[in-house]
Every structure is written in structure tokens, then in C-alpha cells.
């Protein structure tokens, strides 16, 4: 069975991708399973590719292309982030890196930046890059969910900016709505559905 490498150390992300692609004739594996494919790949599984791109697409491509070239496996990688309208798209590609500390610390710091903002509109973006080592091509799949930034940190489920992001059509944050609802609405889910449709066209 053909393998699809998911270039992530995040187990939750791997599980979500496996669930979406479960009925395809692909064996979906994560970086932690590389040594079972080839013992020479054991060191690769420990590598974190630096996200030096200026866009989500560039960062996803950096990771996907690196691992597909090294392993000769069909590889998918993603980059995601929060874009706040009043902050000109900030934090964007720096969503996980712009402020030291915990997710709670970042949420509190972002809310402070939003003080006095006329608009609280925001969107979560995910870009998946599929790198094919055989034909040396990359394909991109984007997902977006629009919403607003809450006035306070609310909810205990999820991670990242979930406690301050209210998706359009709802009155609660992702962290209050819970994982199942979030996964139905999420930016990553939308991108994964597009990826799945593409994979279905491959031999």
C-alpha cells in the first residue's frame, strides 16, 4: 500500500488527518513512524524544519518538500495561523512564535493589542502542501474559517487561540463549542477535504 507521510510531531493533528483520509488506499504515517519504514530515517523523525517563509504556503512547502526529498515518500505538511483584521493580519505566520509563554499568555497579549479596535473580525487559515517526489510537484490546499475575537478568554477545550475565537454563526468560542464542533467547522478540516479529493484522483 502506498504511504503518505504527514510531516508533523503533533499526534492530534496526525489523528485528525488519518480520520479524514481513512477510506483511501493509503497508509498514513507520521514522523515518529519513519524508522519503521527505513532505519536510516530514524534521525529524520527528530528534525523540526524551521518555518522561515513569509506565508503559510511557503512554510508548508518548506516542510513537505524537505521530508519528501529525504524519504522519497508522498508527503503532506501544513502551516496555520490566526489573522486579525484590525491588526493588519497579525499574528499570521508568527501565530505560535510572536509572544513567549503559554497559549493563555498569547491570548491575553492579543486581547490587550485589540483594546480600542473598531473591528474584531478575524480568520483562521490553514494551507496544506502535498509534495510528490516522483513528479517533483507540490499541490496546495487552503481552508479558512471566519469569525470574531472575543472580549475575554472563554472555554477550556482545544488549544492555541480557540478560547478567544468565535466562528461566524455562533455565540461561543471554539474552546466552548468543543472539539467535535470545531473539527466540523475548522480551517484544517476544509483544507483536508480538498486534499482528499485530490488524492482520490491519484493512482
Uncertain stretches of 5 or more adjacent residues: none
- Share of helix, binned: 25-40%
> Oligomerization state of this entry?
single chain
Total domains, how many? 1
CATH topology: Maf protein
Could you explain the architecture of this structure?
This protein is α/β, with parallel strands linked by helices. It has a single domain (2-199), classed as Maf protein (Alpha-Beta Complex). The chain is built from seven helices and six strands; from the N terminus they run βαβααβαβββααα. The chain has helices at 11-20, 34-37, 56-71, 103-113, 174-177, 179-185, 187-199, and strands spanning 2-6, 26-30, 74-84, 121-132, 137-149, 165-167. Strands 2-1-3-4-5-6 form a six-stranded mixed β-sheet. The longest helix has 16 residues, at 56-71. The radius of gyration is 18 Å and the shape is elongated.
Protein traits:
203 residues, alpha/beta, Maf protein, 6-stranded mixed β-sheet
